[in-house]
Amino acid sequence: MKREGELMHQFMEKLYPICRSITGDGVRKTLEIIQGMIPLKIQEVPSGTKVFDWEIPKEWNIRDAYILDEEGRKIVDFKKSNLHVVSYSAPVDKVVTLDELQNHLYSIEEQPDAIPYITSYYEERWGFCITHHQRMQLKEGKYRVYIDSELKDGSLTYGELIIPGESEEEVFLSTYVCHPSMANNELSGPVLTTYLAKWILSNSRKYTYRIIFIPETIGSITYLSRNMDTMKTNIIAGFNISCVGDERAYSYLSSRSGNTLADKVALNILTFKKLDFKSYSFLERGSDERQYCSPGIDLPVASIMRSKFGEYPEYHTSLDNMDLVTPTGLQGSFDIYTECIELIERNETYKINCFGEPQLGKRGLYPTLSTKESGRIVRNMMNFLAYADGKNDLVDISNTINVPVKELYSIIDNLYKNGLIVTVDRNAM
Amino acid sequence: MKREGELMHQFMEKLYPICRSITGDGVRKTLEIIQGMIPLKIQEVPSGTKVFDWEIPKEWNIRDAYILDEEGRKIVDFKKSNLHVVSYSAPVDKVVTLDELQNHLYSIEEQPDAIPYITSYYEERWGFCITHHQRMQLKEGKYRVYIDSELKDGSLTYGELIIPGESEEEVFLSTYVCHPSMANNELSGPVLTTYLAKWILSNSRKYTYRIIFIPETIGSITYLSRNMDTMKTNIIAGFNISCVGDERAYSYLSSRSGNTLADKVALNILTFKKLDFKSYSFLERGSDERQYCSPGIDLPVASIMRSKFGEYPEYHTSLDNMDLVTPTGLQGSFDIYTECIELIERNETYKINCFGEPQLGKRGLYPTLSTKESGRIVRNMMNFLAYADGKNDLVDISNTINVPVKELYSIIDNLYKNGLIVTVDRNAM
Amino acid sequence: MKREGELMHQFMEKLYPICRSITGDGVRKTLEIIQGMIPLKIQEVPSGTKVFDWEIPKEWNIRDAYILDEEGRKIVDFKKSNLHVVSYSAPVDKVVTLDELQNHLYSIEEQPDAIPYITSYYEERWGFCITHHQRMQLKEGKYRVYIDSELKDGSLTYGELIIPGESEEEVFLSTYVCHPSMANNELSGPVLTTYLAKWILSNSRKYTYRIIFIPETIGSITYLSRNMDTMKTNIIAGFNISCVGDERAYSYLSSRSGNTLADKVALNILTFKKLDFKSYSFLERGSDERQYCSPGIDLPVASIMRSKFGEYPEYHTSLDNMDLVTPTGLQGSFDIYTECIELIERNETYKINCFGEPQLGKRGLYPTLSTKESGRIVRNMMNFLAYADGKNDLVDISNTINVPVKELYSIIDNLYKNGLIVTVDRNAM
């Protein structure tokens, strides 16, 4: 296994304990740590700002929270798991009966050892999340409930990194930083995105990269409301990066139209890697692709995931922890995404530069030693040329001639060097 | 079961005994009785009138017909079944041998108890139709054959009802009234169409309805020859209504192109009702869709039937009688057709009125009580909005998000009321 | 069986012994014999002429070749099989050890009784091809190798026959004459093409026919480099005729796009003949379609074969001999190709000449005697008319209504005679 998987997993350990929500200091601290890795620009948008059909909510911060039983024992403690408190809980400090308490408790009968992840962003209430096992053991009596939180005018925080390329055309990566201590959904996304940004920065590139770390939904709506026109003009392909850390599956979630460059690239790479990936329609969406692909915005955004949100048992519970996400799982996602980006960078519409088949022999493109391997290369070269008709792009040709793009890159370089192909401007067609 | 099925069946009993053909008093009487239910305008087109490639034939009427055996017994009697005489039989009154008689007899060996339905519209001859069972028992001897019929210059009669709507765009319903006493094919058609017309008249409507009761083939050709331009300009969807009375099947016969609004609506309604319907291609056509969908006319006309003409054993025999057609069978057709019409009335191309997903909560569109049912409604609403892109019409969205239109109507009303969607003029696209 | 199969097989016997290559007297002699059958125009293109990315090579001729063992016995003799010498072998006359000889021998271990067919057009070397069986028996010792061949500036020879028609639009037939004594691949092609040319000459025709007999690859490139513009303007359909002589299979190889008129016609004829043919994609190409369908040339050229090149065990060996190719095999190809040409000649875009269905009866198009056969004809006629909408051509209609074109020809003649259909200019649409 390559090194990035381990590094990403270590980086994740560092971010894991922070209590994030859609606003507040948890997000800020997360973005600052990421800023230590890549030159992120951190933006603040004030509460009350109108963003499309929405409004930036009040900022939420929490210092402490617990439940004490009659004997004063801390039976639930926010400091042990930040999932114990409903995200955006209003402050509370009172003594309640078990009956009253039950109205503010959340647990999952079917997963008695899991603390569920519950939010209440747009309705003011308070609540605690506990394992069902613990809930069953609660006795009649008085309980002191204490949440030291604050809802106040503040701001929504997000991070943005624009990496300029030769072209103004953009590749877009979006991930979200609003989940408390959960691993696959969602710390794997920001961690992988950080390492992809590092990798992009370390390579020469044709396209500009727009990479954002935002709170889900309200963050993408906010970001779109400020950048939509540029994004619609420039973005040629993008990915919403989420749930990329476990080892159990590969998943592909299509854009709304299903036929954007992002979809084409994702399907080509996943298919030729012979990964047994699951394909999900846009009806099974659930993250920021909901905004990016909405009518009138229609960005070319797809998702490649490991186990998809909502499709694995630990999803949105305390069981989605650091054991679930592995260096191997993260590495797999890193490899797929870097191959996708490489393909986007290399994807062109090619056109053969002569009539009929060229004479490969006189150019030394015909192998002198005829082996099975060299025969395959010549066949791939001739098939590439047969479809290099100024209409098919590299992905189309790879699909048609059934050869992975990895095997075509050196063939293309050779043909290019020999003046046998040219690229055609797809916008001018 | 709803009431219409019973009412239709009773109405059918009244029309059943009348001897109809493509012209003559049987058609007139039938249309007059229907006129008692809906404000039908009855039209007469003179014999000899040129209609496209055809000419209106002479008018045929019959008063009586029988066969007497040597003992003077009336062994075949038109008064007992009007199927006994070949439709458009010339008058005859003579004594013939059994051998001569056989040349004018029609029966079905495989259905020995059925009187077949035979016509001879465009060639002058006479004939009797009897059960094969009876034919086998005929003895050598003399028979008196008597048909008191008349072929004379007269006219072709049809009924027309134009129900104006807000729009000049039209929905077209066509049925035929040229068959003698048979039930599924074809008294079910005019009876259902009468009740659909009553239902349309009793509701407010967007579209104009053009509803016609005609003799098959020559009637549709005649009607088209007089109204084709208006019809081609105005009709957005239509149905040829035939064979809609038995309980054994649902059938869909596509238009020639297969992708008109009539086809889309019929398939959507039939599919989501989870009826196990049979789908027939235009190659299996057989009624007036032959004219409506012919090249150069190309009206958007499909058919929804119960057991399709030619596909059930009693077809075109005396066995296609009032026992075969049931209130339940008719009601099923009524329900499907009214749902189709409702869908045509409500079908629009919708467009979401904001960027990104709207905030349902602040508009009270998010249910306060979260149940399985309310979750489904919210999911359907969000999916509806995701595809309300100004390109998909309601049928497209229903198909894409896999939700019956019935469940979308109230969602659309809610979204509309809240200003979250607008309709787009499909002609202006 | 028809007569052409026998005649073609006899003609093939005459051409079989000639030693052909991509240039030289073998090609000339072959073309002269064909010229005895059809008025072929023979063209010479000098060595060194630039043709697209290629150059006409030196001309190669061979008089004799053999290998003598130490006892002076002629163990390999070109006069017994012209496959014994690598095509384009340089002259040689020397004594070599067995070890040195082995470097110049070609045989097939898996087919020990076959002499392989080997060429070395663009690299100067010499070599002998023998059975693996013989090779295994060679003893240590000295061998005299003798090849009396000549590589000199000369020319590339090809034959061309333009058969003018009423229209400048062309049907194109191409076959190749560069293989020494092998039967299915490739003497069957030029032999069948000769008989197709005779058949075309003997019939009246609408289209002009361009028929060429060329060496493979360099020949098609040469021909294209001289005629491309006319060919691109005029050719509406073409076939590369190769491997058309055995009885074991029918094969269809698509054009690059797969949807040209040649493809449509080939698939229609093969499908309705209910031959169990194998369909090959353009990725499995191997003959001059490589040039005809290359990007920027894009001629509508497909292939119908019996056992396809590369797909039968005797391919490119001495086992591909006169026993493999049979009169029946050749006749099958002749029948298919003549049916394809007949269909191309008759293919039109038809349009019904009236609104609605015509009245067949008054024109005598309705059979007076109603039989199963006549019912089928009427049904086919009505179905033909239903799709004669000025958009579908004959192939489309045949496919849609599922009736072989052979059964539609007389129907079309009848409808045409009665003024019920017209043809529509597909270019004017």
UniProtKB/TrEMBL annotation, chains A, B, C:
Q: Where is the DUF4910 domain?
A: 9-347
Write down a Pfam family by its short name.
Answer: DUF2172
Query: Domain of life here?
Result: Bacteria
Q: Which part of the chain is the UCP01524 winged helix-turn-helix domain?
A: 349-422
Q: Where is the DUF2172 domain?
A: 59-150
Q: What is this protein called?
A: DUF4910 domain-containing protein
